[in-house]
Every structure is written in C-alpha cells, then in structure tokens.
Amino acid sequence: MPQTELLKLIFHHDQRMDQLAPSGDDSFDPLAMFTKPDPTFSTLYFSGTLLKGQKFGLSLFQRYPQILSLFERAFDTSFFKGDASKESMADTLESMNPDESILINPVFKTIETKTFPSGETLRKALEEEGVVIFKRANQDGFDLEVFSKENIYLLFFYHLQAMLEPGFRFFSINGKRVHSERHFYFEIWSLEKPPHGFEEVFPETVL
Known about the structure:
Elements: E1 5-16, H1 32-35, E2 40-50, E3 55-56, H2 64-75, E4 78-80, E5 86-88, H3 89-95, E6 100-105, E7 110-115, H4 119-127, E8 131-137, E9 142-148, H5 154-162, E10 168-174, H6 181-184, H7 186-189, E11 198-201
Parallel strand pairs: 1-10
Antiparallel strand pairs: 1-2, 2-3, 2-9, 4-5, 6-7, 6-8, 8-9, 10-11
Helix pairs in contact: 2-5
C-alpha cells in the first residue's frame, strides 16, 4: 500500500489579543467596549500525518519542500537576519530547532530566530503587523504554526488544494472544534467519519 500524507490545516480566527497579554492601558472606558473593539489575531496550524505506520509531523512529508515554498510565497522569499546576512524563509525554518520561532517584520524585511516569545512580546509583534512562525514538535517530526494579525487563510488554502493528488489528503479544520488530543489526532480514530468542523478538501471544493 503506498504512503498517504494527510495535512491538517487548523484555523482559529478572531482570537482576542488580551488573551496573550493585557494592552497596558488600565483605564476603564465603558463606551470603548462598543466603539473600539478588542484587536484580534489568527492562527494557522499546519500538521502532518503519514497514515501508513501512523507517523506524525509535517516535516516527514515528501511534499514538505512544496509546503515551505508556500510560506515563501506568502511572506517573502528572503529576509535580512539580525547579523545583516540574507537568508530564505525555507532555509531559516530548516535551520531552526523544534520549539523555536521566527519573528518576521514585514516593514523592514527582517527575520529573527528565538524561543517562543512571551504573550507580551507576541502581542506587540502582532500589533506591529509582524508574523510569528512557531516550529512545534510533534511525535516523529515537527509541525508549523503561524500567528498573524490578519486572516491569512486564503494565502494557503487554494495552493494546498492545487496540490491534491492520490497519496495526499487535506483537511481544513475549525480550531474551535479541537477540544482534545483525540480530536487533534482524529485520523487515528475516525478518519472516514471526522468530527463536525473537520472538512476534507477536494479539487471541487469551493469556499
């Protein structure tokens, strides 16, 4: 039986930034609750599973270089690092250790590698239109998680859909429906009858 790669794109939009850290403004203004809505952010979690043998980690995919190319397309092909050297997005992600992150400043085209930032640092980066990509360890490899102020789902969806072929399955999953490890690894328990909000994408799928 040939190997099948299963990609889970878990999206979670309109998350309140005050969940990361308070804004720093302690004043209470009841009117502001209605006239100044709380700033929000989005996350995209790219997780991979090799169905044969049940191996877990996006980095295990033969198609992983293709997926990395989508990150380069979405954010830029190269950035200046803190030491003024220039490096591509793919090279930066490859050289990082699991549980490290990169903080992208889109204005100055700079990229910085560090451990996962604190809630306060993450909020500040997102408020300044930055993007944070976290290299998250999975059981046999690693996955990628993206934090952004804007909803960037469409920067990836159609390109991933275009990659569909025998041996590659793609699920778009509402993160609000992922409540447990059993949900996260649904492909072990209920692949053919996935939970509500776990939608398999086909070539004919339209949003």
